[in-house]
C-alpha cells in the first residue's frame, strides 16, 4: 500500500499542473523546480487546500479527493501535517499549548495531549520553552516548536514547504539534522519542497523535478543530483548541462556542434540526451587553446562570482555562437583569473576534455 498517490490536473492562467506521483510509507519525497513550476500548488492539492480540475488524491487506503464524485475531504480531516518556512505558531498560546493543540483537536484528553506535547518538545530540544509565548523565541527555536506541533497529531503524511528557507545560516544545519532525525525515527512519510540540493540529499529518498507544472525528472536523490536530466536539477547540483541528441562519440546539440563525451550503456544514437560536466572540469583561455581538449567553445564572459577559494565564471553566447553555452560555468583559481586578465563582456575560450563529460539519456 502506498502512503499517498495522486494524479491530477489543475489549470492556472500561467500554467497547468499535470502530475501523477506516489510515495511509499516512510519515504521522503523531495519536490524541486524553479519558481512558478507548481511545487506549492502540488502541496495545496495534497493538503486539500486546492481542488483540482480533474483527478484524485489517495492517502493510504482513503480517497480524499475525487473530482469524478465531487469528493474533497477538508484539510483538518486528512491527517496531513504542514511545516512551512515560518513556524506560524499561535501567538496567544504558550509553546506547550501550541504543540498540544493538534491532539486536543482530534479529541485527545487534555492531560494526554499535554504529555505528548512535552515528549515531542523534549525530542526537538525545546522542552525549556514550554511555558513561553512564541514571540519570546528565535526563528530557529520557533521552527523546532513548529516541527513538534506538526508531528503531534501523528499525520500520515508531512508536508515540508521549504522549512529551512527562513532560518539564518547558524540555525540551518542544526534544524536540518533535527528534521532528518525526527522524520527517520518516526518513519514519517513526507513531501519536501526545497531549492537546496543539500536539503534533498540529507532528507529525501527520492526526487521529483517539476517544470511548468509537469514532472520532467524523478528518481533516487543521489542519482538525480549526480546524473541530472533537466537544467534545473543540474543547476542546483552545481553541474553544467547541455541538451541534445546522442550520437557517435557524444551529443549533437540543437545548433549542430557535437559535445564529445562518455555515454551511458543505455544511450543509443538518436536518443534525446544531455551532456553533464562539473565547472571544475572547464579550463578557460584568453586565446583558442591547442592540444588535447576535444570540446573547445568560444563564449562571452557574462559574470564572475567569487566562491571561496575559486572564482566561478559564467558564459554567455558569443556573437553568432550557439545559444546553449549561455549559463555554462567554469571554476578557476584567483591566480588563474589574474593571468587571464579579462572582464565581463570579454571573449574567452572554454575547453573540456571528453573524459570529463558524461552523456545521459532523458525521458519524454
Describe this structure in words.
One of its GO terms (molecular function) is ATP binding. InterPro entries: AAA+_ATPase (IPR003593), ABC_SmlMolc_Importer (IPR050093), ABC_transporter-like_ATP-bd (IPR003439), ABC_transporter-like_CS (IPR017871), ABC_transpr_FbpC (IPR015853), Mo/tungstate-bd_C_term_dom (IPR008995), Mop_domain (IPR004606), P-loop_NTPase (IPR027417). Keywords: ATP-binding, Cell inner membrane, Cell membrane, Ion transport, Iron, Iron transport, Membrane, Molybdenum, Nucleotide-binding, Translocase, Transport. Pfam families: ABC_tran, TOBE. With about 375 residues, the protein is an alpha+beta fold. It has two domains: about 5-225, P-loop containing nucleotide triphosphate hydrolases (Rossmann fold), CATH 3.40.50.300; about 280-355, RNA polymerase II/Efflux pump adaptor protein, barrel-sandwich hybrid domain (OB fold (Dihydrolipoamide Acetyltransferase, E2P)). The protein is built from nine helices and 22 strands. The protein has a six-stranded mixed β-sheet. The protein has a six-stranded mixed β-sheet with strand order 14-13-12-16-22-15. It has a five-stranded antiparallel β-sheet with strand order 2-1-4-5-6, covered by helices on one side. A hairpin with a 4-residue loop joins β5 (about 60-65) and β6 (about 70). α2 runs parallel beside α4 (about 140-150), α3 crosses α4 (about 140-150) and α4 runs parallel beside α5 (about 170-185). The two termini are about 30 Å apart.
Amino acid at each position: 500500500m502506498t502512503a499517498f498517490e495522486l494524479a491530477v490536473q489543475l489549470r492556472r492562467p500561467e500554467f497547468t499542473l499535470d502530475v501523477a506521483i506516489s510515495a511509499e510509507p516512510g519515504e521522503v519525497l523531495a519536490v524541486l523546480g524553479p519558481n512558478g513550476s507548481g511545487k506549492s500548488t502540488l502541496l495545496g492539492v495534497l493538503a486539500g487546500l486546492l481542488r483540482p480540475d480533474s483527478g484524485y488524491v489517495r492517502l493510504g487506503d482513503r480517497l480524499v479527493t475525487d473530482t469524478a464524485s465531487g469528493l474533497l475531504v477538508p484539510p483538518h480531516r486528512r491527517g496531513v501535517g504542514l511545516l512551512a518556512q515560518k513556524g506560524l505558531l499561535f501567538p496567544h498560546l504558550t509553546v506547550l499549548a501550541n504543540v498540544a493543540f493538534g491532539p486536543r483537536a482530534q479529541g485527545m484528553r487534555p492531560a494526554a495531549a499535554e504529555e505528548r506535547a512535552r515528549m515531542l518538545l523534549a525530542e526537538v530540544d525545546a522542552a525549556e520553552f514550554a511555558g513561553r509565548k512564541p514571540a519570546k523565541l528565535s526563528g530557529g527555536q520557533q521552527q523546532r516548536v513548529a516541527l513538534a506541533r506538526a508531528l503531534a497529531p501523528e499525520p500520515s503524511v508531512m508536508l515540508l514547504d521549504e522549512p529551512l528557507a527562513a532560518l539564518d545560516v547558524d540555525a540551518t544545519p542544526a534544524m536540518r539534522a533535527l528534521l532528518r532525525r525526527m522524520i527517520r525515527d518516526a518513519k514519517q512519510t513526507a513531501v519536501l519542497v526545497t531549492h537546496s540540493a543539500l536539503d534533498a540529499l540529507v532528507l529525501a529518498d527520492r526526487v521529483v523535478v517539476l517544470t511548468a507544472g509537469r514532472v520532467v525528472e524523478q528518481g533516487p536523490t543521489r542519482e538525480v543530483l549526480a546524473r541530472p536530466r533537466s537544467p534545473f536539477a543540474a543547476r542546483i547540483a552545481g553541474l553544467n548541462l547541455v541538451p541534445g541528441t546522442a550520437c557517435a562519440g557524444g551529443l549533437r546539440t540543437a545548433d549542430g556542434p557535437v559535445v564529445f563525451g562518455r555515454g551511458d550503456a543505455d544511450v543509443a544514437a538518436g536518443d534525446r540526451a544531455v551532456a553533464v560536466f562539473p565547472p571544475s572540469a572547464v579550463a578557460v583561455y584568453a586565446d583558442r587553446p591547442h592540444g588535447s581538449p576535444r570540446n573547445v567553445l568560444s563564449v562571452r564572459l557574462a559574470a564572475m562570482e567569487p566562491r571561496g577559494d575559486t572564482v566561478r565564471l559564467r558564459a554567455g553566447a558569443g556573437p553568432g555562437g550557439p545559444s546553449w553555452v549561455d549559463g555554462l560555468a567554469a571554476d578557476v583559481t584567483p591566480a588563474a583569473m589574474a593571468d587571464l586578465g579579462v572582464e565581463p563582456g570579454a571573449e574567452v575560450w572554454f575547453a573540456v576534455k571528453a573524459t570529463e563529460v558524461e552523456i545521459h539519456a532523458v525521458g519524454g
